[in-house]
Amino acid sequence: MIAYILRRVLGAIITLFVVSVITFGIFFLIPRWAGGSAESLASRYVGRTANEEQVRVAAEKLGFNDPLWEQYGRWIKGIFVGADYNYGPGVEHCPAPCFGYSFISRTPVWPDLVDRMPVTLSLAIGASILWLVVGVSVGVLSALKRGTIFDRASMGIALAGVSLPIFFTGLMALAIFSYKLGWTAPGGHFTPITQNPADWAYNLILPWITLAFLFSAAYARLTRAGMLETMSEDYVRTARAKGVPERRVVTRHGLRAALTPIVTIFGLDLGLLLGGAVLTESTFSLPGLGKYAIDGIFAGDFPKVMGVTLVAALFVVIFNLVVDILYAVVDPRVRLS
Q1: At CA 75, angle to CA 69 and CA 104, rounded to 5?
Q2: Is 326 exposed, middle or buried (0-12, 13-18, 19+ CB in 10 A)?
Q3: At 94, phi and psi to the nearest 5?
Q4: Which of 4, 50, 97, 286 could in theory staple to 336 by disulfide, Cβ–Cβ 3.0 to 4.6 A?
């Protein structure tokens, strides 16, 4: 077990290195391939109001004329020990961990990410609990009641949930439950759970349900397919022949084996959401990481977008590592060596 975990941790570190190289390439190398210059890259740092001379000086001071491997080394070094950005008019210090410095707002990116993390964390965890419980429960019942009205109705609703985009269901939910009926908050507000748990849940209940509706639909279909496959296995028939209670057959033998793909996609989905639920946060105007990235795109604030990208990649790699380790717990057929 220890050797397996160490191998997976080493693999995660290598993956993070590859992700950092790819992320750097997306923001620094591909623009050059597309015909961009050092000045065009610098303009993303100094803002759209800077003149040509300011952009040229910034490009020289920021080192965009240096070889790419030197730029990558400075960028990685800044994450661990901090960085100083000499953009011409002055020098701005970005303390470690430096995920970038916004020259438009004159602030490091990392403190902004930390401030907005509770919003995204609250949204992702609350919605994930809902979609996991509802999706798996509906999928199991549909598999056990295959061909019944419940099965066809639940799978029909699941198909609609998978097909409808979040910005459509979110806006419809806001129009009906917030503006017409007044049952839920209209969006745009977030109260920390430590300040007022009731307001925290009230402001997030509609985004939770809307986001969970999208994901629980996919989880219900996947759980149903997995249960139909595992319930026809020989070991399940053997357990029934030995007189094992049906509830134990379903939960211990059928569901446990069917949960392997659920654990896989749950870890990846949760990791992506913690990196920023872009559409949900934009639809409900929640000040999380996703909306932070969107605001950075519209403002042309390049470091903000890159900071969110790195955080999202970090969460995906970490949760993928956790999923790999949990395989042996969920699926008895998996053996770690």
Answers
A1: 130
A2: middle
A3: -120, 110
A4: 4
123 contacts 281 by C-beta, under 8 angstroms: yes
- CATH 1.10.3720.10 domain span(s) along the chain: 112-330
Question: Which of 321, 131, 291 lies closest to 222 in space, CA to CA?
Answer: 131
For residue range 96-149, list pLDDT tens digits in order: 888 888 877 878 889 999 999 999 999 988 988 988 888 888 888 888 888 788
In this predicted structure, what is the pLDDT of residue 26?
Answer: 81
Task: Look at residue 196 in the predicted model and tell me its pLDDT.
Answer: 87
Amino acid of residue 75: W
Secondary structure string (H, E, C) spanning the chain: CHHHHHHHHHHHHHHHHHHHHHHHHHHHHHHHHCCCCHHHHHHHHHCCCCCHHHHHHHHHHCCCCCCHHHHHHHHHHHHHHCEEEECCCCEEEECCCCCCEECCCCEEHHHHHHHHHHHHHHHHHHHHHHHHHHHHHHHHHHHHCCCCHHHHHHHHHHHHHHHCCHHHHHHHHHHHHHHHCCCCCCCCCCCCCCCCHHHHHHHHHHHHHHHHHHHHHHHHHHHHHHHHHHCCCHHHHHHHHCCCCHHHHHHHHHHHHHHHHHHHHHHHHHHHHHCCCHHHHHHCCCCCHHHHHHHHHHHCCHHHHHHHHHHHHHHHHHHHHHHHHHHHHHCCCCCCC
Question: Which residue type occupies 124?
Answer: A
What predicted TM-score, i.e. pTM, was given to this entire model?
0.80
Listed in sequence order, the residues at least 6 apart from 282 whose beta carbon sits closer than 8 Å to its beta carbon are 167, 290, 291, 294
User: Quick one: pLDDT at residue 231?
Assistant: 77
**Residue 301 · residue 253 · CB < 8 Å:** no
Tokens, residue 322: 């956790």
CB 261 within 8 A of CB 222: yes
117: which 2 tokens?
Answer: 């993390």
CATH of 112-330, picked from 3.40.50.300, 1.10.3720.10, 3.40.120.10, 1.10.10.60, is 1.10.3720.10
- At 193-207, the pLDDT tens digits run 888 888 899 988 999
